[in-house]
Amino acid sequence: MKSFLAGVVRILSPGVSLVLALGLVSVLLIAFLPAHSADGDGLQVWVFDANQATLYRTLAPEWDRRHPTLPLRISQVVGPALQSRMLSGFYSGTPVADLIEIDRIQVAPVFAGPLQDVGFVDLTERLEKEGLMARVNRASFSPWTSRGHIFGLPHDVHPVMLVYRADLVEAAGIEVNRIETWDDYFRVMRPLRSASDSDGYIDRYPLALSLNNPFFSEIFLLQGGGGYFDGAGAPTLNSPVNARLLARLALWYGGPGREIGNFDMFSGAGLQLISNGYTLAILAPDWYAGSIVTSLPHLAGKLKVMPMPAWEHGGRRTSVNGGTMLGITKASRHPQEAWELAKYLYFSPVVAERLFATTHIVSPMIPNWTLACYDAPDPYFSRQPVGRLYLRQAPQVPLRPSSPYIGTAILMVNNALTRLIQIVESRHFTAPAQIEPEARQMLDQAQGLLLAEMHRNVFLNRPTP
Amino acid sequence: MSSRRPHPAWAPWLFLAPFLLFFAAFGAWPLVRSFMLAFEQTFGPRTTVYVGTLNFRFLLHDPLFWAAVRNTAVFTIGTLVVQVPVALALALLLNRPDLRGRALFRLIFFSPTIVGSIFVGVIFSLLLEKRSGLVNTVLHAAFHSWNPDFPWVDGFVMPSLLIASLWLSVGFNMSYLLAALQNVPGDQLDAAAIDGANAWQRFRHVTLPAIQPVIGILVLLTVVGALQLFDLPFILYADSFGNGPNNAALSIVTYLYQTGFRSGDLGYASAIGWILTIILVLIALGYRWLTREEDAAA
Predict the structure, then answer these.
(1) pTM (2 decimals)?
(2) Which of A8, A112, A213 is opposite residue B239, by nearest beta carbon?
(3) Which of A27, A28, A7, A29 is nearest to A17 (CA)?
(4) Residue A329: what are its φ and ψ, rounded to 5°?
(5) Chain A interface residues facing chain B, Cβ-Cβ under 8 Å?
(6) What's the complex ipTM?
(7) Which domain holds residue A229?
């Protein structure tokens, strides 16, 4: 050893020796210093949405006053990064927050493994014991339920309504109260579908949707009673109702009977098109109504909300889009405090009021539905009580059984729709009956592919392909 | 004159040790581990089940994987066919001594390279928007019959990706070729001109052979870069997680990312990664084989 060190000293210059020594000291320090979370001590909460982060930060002083030894630490981490940090923590034990607020697509992989390896605390017992199951909108739990166990508190209900250009529609003498079905809607609005210049291209559509965004087709399938998985987690892509609805959607998007503009309305460019009247209406979950208010202030008083027209007479007048949960990580050293905080953030009337005021998101907690804020006339939406209108639809919001394969399933069905539209365009189909056999065939194919994918997963109950 | 004792035999290893340690930790071990993972099914790296060759067998019949292979191959060929000739044309243009403002043009053509692919994805998603995008707006203003809702991104997935990729990389390739062109011996070009060779003949028989090694390297870099296509479709088709309409934008690396980092199946992702590695190695070997005569001459 002595000769080795002597040899090292002999071959290294003093400068190199110094650098080497500093390097060794640094490595030893990093290796032996106690690990701290990057976000500091306290009760850590990771959220992906800037509005939520701002809201929770305003609540932090009150929490800190009541819990002086466990201050609240809110970190905003954007979606994909949040998912990566969360999964790294769950898979490999890297530091994670005590509470993670995450959307339903980003959280889906958490449920792909054995139940005991899910990185969130199972909340089922607590929810039942404290009577919360009965007090929270039932459909709001479904995306966070895996194999009968609930792993997150639901943040929202997210009913979907139509936001429409009341100034244009009412000026044309159209009474939206008389619209009940989509057929009614397109028939009544057709006179307003127009080309405003001489180029022959339509410059105003009754509705705009994006084929590129697969969540639009999900909204319609769920509204019409279709879906992707049953309660046991088995895929139902090729159900007859899905085929029927997809056939009708394909006719809206393409062919001689095209009814809608194909444009991503959940984007900045999409918002611009509402503003310039390219579309008379857009699908708007409650969270998007909030975005519209913030992004298009100049349309104040020109927009109104109405229930989605149903697929059939007497059918459901709403659907659901988005969804966020708050879960307590198993790595949390303060699960009891985290549970208290989670309930406060998601179920307390005070926070529900502030949430609605800043984002238009309505609470999933049924007793909160009597809050006065939901009945206040909203000057932006032509003095409609927007909160109440959304809440009226809340009990009809469809269930969305969770699956780690939900993202894949939604994409597969949307791909089937894309191919159906191509067929409609090339063969000039005009009736759903013409395209329905093709829809069934494509959905059978998608179902087969998804089953094969699921069957490969040795950690889940494997459905038979 | 001072006499120095020879260094001990292990001295080179001491100097190599930092690299070897880092390479072992971040290069060799991950390679070995990913090879092992390719024969396992995982839920993260801690929960694993040995599944033999199941991942590779599933891969052979996985339509999404083959869609990704097809898209990546089309993109690679498209990139090769478009990028190198356009870069060469720009380099030839900027190599003209009589061109005014050459430095400015070089800066303009090279600057997208500095922007980075993520920003290029964002920029092109705005430029190619229907109705409100700059491309459709300008085309509709110039040609009244142009459809303002022309579906660049939805309907022309590969052309959209190729255009964005061209804008991003052509300046980089051009700068290599420009450097090569500036090293073409002027006396040979003069001699050819005196012998009566026209511009095309001078290019074909003097310039092209002189810059051929650089073209070869660019072809290899372009192919390897194109096979690793990820960020552009991931941004342009963010709504569909980078897949695009009917999976038309899905690339091998996007599929690998989705499988490994969105679904947590590192085993299947490793299998995809190894297939991609084999493809890249085969291409590199093919390149070496094609250029063996030049290598021997050098």
Answers:
(1) 0.87
(2) A213
(3) A7
(4) -75, 150
(5) 7-8, 10-11, 83-84, 87, 90-92, 109, 112-114, 117, 198-199, 201, 210-215, 261-264, 269, 272-273, 278, 404, 407, 411, 414-415, 418-419, 449, 452, 456-459
(6) 0.82
(7) 160-319+400-456
